[in-house]
Design goal:
The protein is built from five helices and no strands. The relative contact order is 0.15.
């Protein structure tokens, strides 16, 4: 079966959103690698007892990795029926992770809230996923 015939044509935007999220993850990973060198935090140590800024940089990456699988799942479910809306919501979420990280990188954990607008994207794809489920169940 040809997947291009099954997927909505706008699913290409979703794929581009996934690629954007890969760029975001790579950016966060490179920042952690640089911080490991700068603050001399050797592997496998996850956090430093001496360098709180390193911990903020590491935590921004770790928190993103903690929520990323769920976002991927809901993004994909939502995109099967609402590809354009899911892409817009996905771009909002991915962009917010840059804001979240850049705020955290200041060493002031409260500034991570600069990325709080990402909940629009995250909760949005969850809501669309619920809509898809209810449609499949014939509720509406």
């Amino acid at each position: 079966m040809n997947m291009l015939a099954v997927l909505p044509s706008e699913f290409g935007y979703v794929i581009l959103t996934y690629l954007y999220s890969w760029i975001m993850l790579a950016f966060l990973a490179v920042k952690v690698g640089g911080a490991r060198k700068k603050y001399d935090v050797k592997y496998p140590t996850m956090y430093s007892d001496k360098e709180p800024v390193f911990n903020c940089i590491q935590r921004a990456h770790q928190n993103t990795l903690e929520v990323y699988p769920q976002w991927l799942l809901f993004q994909t479910i939502a995109a099967l029926v609402y590809p354009l809306s899911a892409s817009v919501l996905g771009v909002i979420w991915v962009t917010s992770r840059f804001s979240y990280a850049l705020g955290y990188y200041t060493g002031d954990p409260a500034k991570r809230m600069n990325g709080a607008y990402g909940y629009i994207g995250y909760l949005g794809v969850i809501a669309l996923s619920i809509s898809v489920a209810l449609q499949l169940l014939g509720v509406f």
